[in-house]
Write a structure and sequence with these properties.
CATH topology: GMP Synthetase, Chain A, domain 3
Shape: globular
Helix content: 40-55%
Radius of gyration: 13 Å
Oligomer: single chain
Number of domains: 1
Strand content: 15-25%
Number of strands: 3
């Protein structure tokens, strides 16, 4: 099963090459985190090797922070983008999108 997962990740990485870095990171997000965790966060920015993730609530921020190193490594590897860190935030903007539950 792990061999198949690596094959699919490799295929995704190759297919992302024509996209912008931000779009590649957004496409890699659910692959890295899985559908449950990914549904509570969204890639919203990429600047100076730092990925910004909008997270649904403080509990999910804590969960993602506990896996920050692993998430950063996998995002960079799959998206083919240099990732030196991740900034998790909970935006409080009017009209911000509702997260899927």
């Amino acid at each position: 099963m792990e061999g198949m997962r690596e094959l699919l990740r490799g295929n995704l990485r190759r297919s992302l090459q024509a996209m912008s870095e931000l779009d590649r990171l957004a496409a890699a997000w659910p692959v890295v985190c899985g559908t449950v965790m990914a549904s509570h966060g969204e890639v919203i920015g990429y600047r100076e090797e730092i990925v910004s993730i909008d997270v649904s609530d403080a509990d999910w921020i804590r969960q993602m922070l506990s896996m920050q190193g692993q998430i950063a490594g996998e995002l960079g590897r799959i998206a083919g983008v240099r990732v030196s860190g991740i900034h998790f935030e909970r935006r409080q903007l009017a009209g911000a999108r509702e997260f899927r539950r």
